Amino acid sequence: MVPALRIRSLNEAPIRADRPTVLYWMTAFRRTRSNFALERAVEHAEALRRPLVILEALRVGYPWASDRLHQFVIDGMRDNAAALAGRAGVTYVPYLEPAAGEGRGLLEALAQSAAMVVTDDFPCFFLPRMAAAAAARLDVRLETVDANGMLPMRAVEQVYPTAYAFRRALQKTLPAHFQDRPAADPVARLAPLSAWTVPADLRQRWPHALEWLDDGGTLSQLPIDHSVGTAPLTGGAAAAARRLQSFLEHDLELYGTGRNDPDHDVSSRLSPYLHFGHIGPHEVFDEVMRREGWLGQVSARTAGQREGWWQVSPHAESFLDEFITWRELGYNFTSRRDDYDRYDSLPSWARASLDAHSTDPRPHLYTLDELAAARTHDPLWNAAQRQLTRDGRIHNYLRMLWGKKILQWSASPREALAHMIELNNRYALDGRNPNSYSGIFWVLGRYDRPWGPTRPIFGVIRYMTSENTARKVSVTRYLARYGDTPELFS
Fold first, then answer.
1. Position 212 confidence tier, pLDDT thresholds 50, 70, 90
2. pLDDT of the residue at 484
3. pLDDT tens-place string over residues 19-51
4. Is 54 left (phi over 0), alpha (psi -120 to 50) or beta?
5. For residue 489, is pLDDT > 50?
């Protein structure tokens, strides 16, 4: 049963038990497994003895819409279609908007046949506004369900200023939620009812996305940014599962000591799949702990310690701190602060320091276009930007350096923030996410503390240089792959 703490009603409209379906509007958790939101829709379908309809739509008018982001979602649609094919009592409706505004009315049309509508509770990007606007239009109850993390977003009542403070809260709060597990295959619980047939007029007005693609439709026909090409990474639940297993088999045992090394990239590389909901946090957690032989016991000491609380290997402890503490810290902020993406949300000490040095002379100034094209004097920074534009990601450690140099090379801290958000959200597959905003704002002092000595431009904001980074971690192979010399790219 889905925990009540994860469920909210967005409107006061009634459940309309006389209507023939239950509708799940899949917007952020784009998967059929380990998904509390889908499970909640199944619960309603069971209780009302109604077939389930799953709408997974992708508009063209969202910010930073591109071939890269569209293709990743489409990959996931194909996996969802395969997972739901032939399943009793469920109808899957994938939709790609061909032009801005063409998808308007689809949700309402499907909701006219729905006794209940359930959607995803994602606290970032345009999705909260979209869900609230839909709730105001619909004449049927709309519930939103939190399937974002191991800890329900509403399990804690404050915004935590540091990872340490949040980790302490997690260690005290999370054990009470260990038993609340999403069903591995919630659709399997559906009664063997006949699937609902989408009326012909609706299918004609809003064609089935995968049928349109299979009939020759292409991304080039859509009004999205074609300059941001697809990444060399397949989206979808199947690819996410393969990536997780590869990480567990080859990289986890090196994670604790090697995750900061760009030449031997042992990071999980799961963040794009988590962002688009192609894999759920409980599924990742369960696979890691199964491999560790975890018996469900944690330390009685809840002092915010980074290691030892989970009572598993040091490498697994290190991964879980990144995967749960740091990832869900971002959800804590974005779910409680509407200004999560604005400069004024920075801690007062950080704003004071940045503002005091906002007019300091900059040794180099680069425009947004120059940054996007990796046209700076710094080979390591250029390599990181090239990885972002080509692969849709930057190695986790170099992502911090990437942001610090943008701060140093921008005319003001506010301009630096705007440049980081634009580049990250345009190119990164895991952009537009609470966790990526945590990383961007960490560059400017969020979740950090003052660092001396006071420096030009940075003030007491933590300082990083490419030279020091290259001394701390191995970047020879990284530069060979992404560096300035074209023949090294092959």
1. very high
2. 79
3. 999 999 999 999 999 999 999 999 999 999 999
4. beta
5. no
Biggest CA–CA distance in the chain, Å, is 70
By the 10 Å C-beta count (0-12 exposed, 13-18 middle, 19+ buried), 3 is classed as middle
Q: Does residue 123 have a pLDDT over 70? A: yes
In order of 31, 49, 476, the CA distances from 142 in angstroms are: 20, 18, 53
Q: How far apart are CA 211 and CA 338, in angstroms?
A: 38
What percentage of the chain carries pLDDT values higher than 90? Answer: 98
392 phi/psi in degrees, rounded to 5: 80, 20
Alpha-carbon distance 353 to 334, whole Å? Answer: 24
Give the Cβ contact number of residue 238 at 10 Å.
Answer: 16
Polymer length of the chain = 490
Architecture of domain 343-484: Orthogonal Bundle (1.10)
Q: Where are the domains of the chain?
A: 1-147, 237-334, 343-484
**Tokens standing for residue 392:** 């849709």
Q: Is the CB of residue 235 less than 8 Å from the CB of residue 75?
A: yes
Strands 142-145, 90-96: pairing kind: unpaired
| pLDDT at 166 (0 to 100) | 98
Give Cβ neighbours of residue 249 (< 8 Å, ≥ 6 apart): none
Fold for domain 237-334?
A: 1.25.40
Q: What is the CATH number that goes with domain 1-147?
A: 3.40.50.620
- Sequence-ordered alpha helix ranges (H) in 127-263: 127-137, 163-173, 200-205, 209-214, 237-246, 252-258
Task: State the Cα–Cα distance between residues 371 and 373, nearest whole angstrom.
Answer: 5
List the 7-9 sheet strands across, edge first.
Answer: 7-9, 142-145, 114-120, 21-26, 52-58, 90-96
State how far the Cα of 389 lies from the Cα of 381, in Å rounded to an integer: 13
Question: CATH topology of 1-147 equal to that of 237-334?
Answer: no
* Burial class of residue 9 (count of CB atoms within 10 Å of its CB; 0-12, 13-18, 19+): exposed
Amino acid at residue number 359: T
Model's pTM, two decimal places? 0.96
DSSP characters for 302-313? -S--SSSSS-S-
**Rounded CA gap, 78 and 206, in Å?**
18
DSSP codes, 241-290? HHHHHHIIIIIHHHHHHHTT-GGG--S---HHHHHTTSS-HHHHHHHHHH
The mean per-residue pLDDT over the stretch 399-425 comes to 98
What is the pLDDT averaged over residues 263-281?
97
